[in-house]
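Comment thread on ticket #2218

A.B. wrote:
> Attaching the input chain for the structure job we discussed in standup.
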Amino acid sequence: FVLTGPATGPAAAQTTICSGVSVKDVQKCDPGWAANMHFMHWRMYSGHNCTNYVAYRLKRDGVPEPSYRLGNADTWAPNAKKHGVRVDNKPEVGAVGAWPGRRHVVYVEEVGSNYLITSEDNWPGYYPKGMYRKIKVFKGERAYPTQFIHFKGKSTINGPLPEISGTATEGSTLTASAGSWSPSGVTLSYQWLRDGVIIAGATKKSYTLTSKDVGHRITISVTGEKSGYKSRTASSDPT
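C.D. wrote:
> Ran it. Output below, let me know if you need it in another format.
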């Protein structure tokens, strides 16, 4: 907040952005997956299931199929880690979200300061007919992964959450630090937000606080782009 203490408000809750059971409904959410869900990817079972979907997404990102077997969802993280793949608690766009001991994996679409947007597919034993979902989930909720598997693909942009420095008082200037992004040649763009709403014209690394910011949460979103790659947007913690 700028110049004031915390304000009360409704708690954030998991929301479904898109979902589908039939191929026709899945096509509205992800046309590529709808056309490919009945094929096997990385030797996973075809149709509605989480590992086949995530394998498909990783293939689309240019990740080569591992020479070893990943197995069921609950063994993806330990098996990948054994073979030198980074596994940690740091979310990144393009990473695989997982939980120790739980037979489920998801694909990370977007990373925010306290939320993720993930996509997944679920086998018919979990939902009666199986279901694709894209959801927004907040830290602390059951659907928020507790570990992340970082396979590397030729079409994946990686970068940390940006940080804000400066004093949160009217008239002061805040400055964003984007950190190190990869691969080389990624172009970064900046957007400041007030309570999650874009501040018009505030698209530089620095932002001078005005009277309109008093009592509100200020964040910065950084987007990395490169031709041939899927763009990545990361958002800071609020000040």
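A.B. wrote:
> Thanks. Noting for the ticket: Helices lie at 23-29, 31-36, 50-60, 73-82.
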